[in-house]
Amino acid sequence: MIRLVALLILVIPGILAMLGIKLMRDMLFGILQSPFPFLWLQFIVGLLLFLGGLGFIGGFLFRRDQRNNKVQDRFKK
To answer: Where along the chain do its domains lie?
Structure first.
């Protein structure tokens, strides 16, 4: 059960990061999605979604490895 919750915690930010990549790609091809009035705004929101999702997943994995002593000495508490 705990592993399922951990998987869900990682899947939701992953989906948000994927949506961010899609928004940035659509901006490069000039495709404007409906909630955004400007292409530059669509790109900024996509970039924030991507960086937020990637940062959350990276932080989650780093913290897990830190608890299991699988990081370098300089990252250990």
So the answer is: 2-75
